[in-house]
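Lab notebook: predicted structure, single chain.

Context: the supervisor wants predicted structures on file for every construct in the current expression panel, including those that have not yet been purified. This is the next one on the list. No modifications to the sequence; it matches the entry in the shared construct table.
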Amino acid sequence: METGTRIVLLLALWGVYALLHSLLASLQAKRFVAAHYPRLMPFYRLGYNAIALILLLPPLYLTWAWRGPLLWQWSGPLLWLANGLALLAVAGFFWTLRYYSGAEFLGLSQAQRGEKSVRDQEHFSLSPLHRYVRHPWYALGLVIIWSRDMDAMFLATACIITLYFVVGSRLEERKLISYHGEVYREYRKRVPGLVPLPWRYLDREQERQLLVMSGKPRSG
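Prediction complete. Output recorded below exactly as produced.
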């Protein structure tokens, strides 16, 4: 199979993943299940995560199975820089986990509670990285992706994932606005989405004010 055909097929698989992932995450999909299959709602998040993981495997596998000649490769001091940034991004990801409810994120809490609401139950909260970007996991993911050596397949994957993070973050924010209203609108005005900007961030007082607006004062 020619490289061009492989890239098209790989992009198609990523496109299917992105489409289904966004569709299943939408309020419309949740409302449909709640209206027609209410007994399944407590397990919606669990099922969503399981489907997302399964759909992720084919494009990831082909990205590595169809590896070809490198288009560019980090070397010397740049290699140390790239790997250092990637390690910091991985560390940042695990650091932010302490500010999330893992059971809620995975869907275990909803299943245990028998939760049938279509709305996410987590309150508006901010990790330290949320003071600098609205979507820190996406931002950290981009650092990891673009600090790797690139062949044609990985470059195609990096481009489509970057596009999906941009589009997906905007779709996600529609839900967050519906959940948190003016608090999230104010937060969005003050903090960039994916790329930190030195002149746009929340200081601790602004963070406290937003949390007070949301009804959850910052402890400490």
